[in-house]
Amino acid sequence: MIRGLDTVEQSLDVLLKRQENTSGNIANVNTTGYQAKQLFQSTLKEVQFENHQGGPNVSERQNIGGFTFGNAIDGSYVDSSKGSMKETGRATDFAVNSDGYFTVRMNDGSLAYTRNGNFKLNNQNQYMTQEGYQVIGNNGQAITASNNPAFRIVSIPNEQQLTDAGNGYYTTNQNVQINTNPNVMQGYLEQSNVSMSDEMVTLMQTGREFEANQKVLSSTNETLDKAVNSLGKV
């Protein structure tokens, strides 16, 4: 019975993480260049149970079978599918209409990558992100506004191994590849690739699984109550 509580706890932890991930995707449905985050889970390894009640003297070890305590979140990955393009007409808006990411320099000097081309200009007429990060050009320096800016667009060999740095920025330890002929559209922005219909279905499914686990928890609680308050009196 106690193992039943452990199993329900494990399952509720998984559902909570799934719900948080889905809520995060829905919250960013209107975030420019946002790429949906997906989780993957696996079943825990089966544990073998045994007791020492075998044999004629009820003292020998015997196997009584295996038990799986549930599932666990193994990790997450970024959905790299492209969002739709929206025309804005603003000269500081850009969209990568091909594979690749803009390169930006974070406040700590490290490089990050994003599909969000909603830029602005600083006092030096250089492109900056809305958060104030420098946008990098092919020469590795901050890029100055021009009629045909040479953004440093990079391709990531394995996009599913990107690390989410928040707000649509990603980092990676992989060796990135500079795209020498990217298709960058000025006056456009790439929209989020979040599918509201898919996320709502996932949210409803998670809610039903929460309800099922609550019923199991209630049933286990009733069994424990009888074991403590009824059988304990005998």
TrEMBL record:
Subcellular locations according to the entry: Bacterial flagellum basal body
Domain Flagellar basal body rod protein N-terminal positions: 17-35
Pfam families: Flg_bb_rod, Flg_bbr_C, LlgE_F_G_D1
Keywords: Bacterial flagellum, Cell projection, Cilium, Flagellum
GO biological process: bacterial-type flagellum-dependent swarming motility
Main location: other
InterPro entries, per database record: Flag_bb_rod_N, Flagellar_FlgE/F/G, Flg_bb/hook_C_dom, FlgE/F/G-like, LlgE_F_G-like_D1
Domain Flagellar hook protein FlgE/F/G-like D1: 95-158
One GO CC term, this protein: bacterial-type flagellum basal body
Domain Flagellar basal-body/hook protein C-terminal as annotated: residue spans: 185-229
Family membership noted in the UniProt record: Belongs to the flagella basal body rod proteins family.
Protein name from the UniProt record: Flagellar basal-body rod protein
Organism listed in the record: Liquorilactobacillus hordei DSM 19519
Record lineage: Bacteria, Bacillati, Bacillota, Bacilli, Lactobacillales
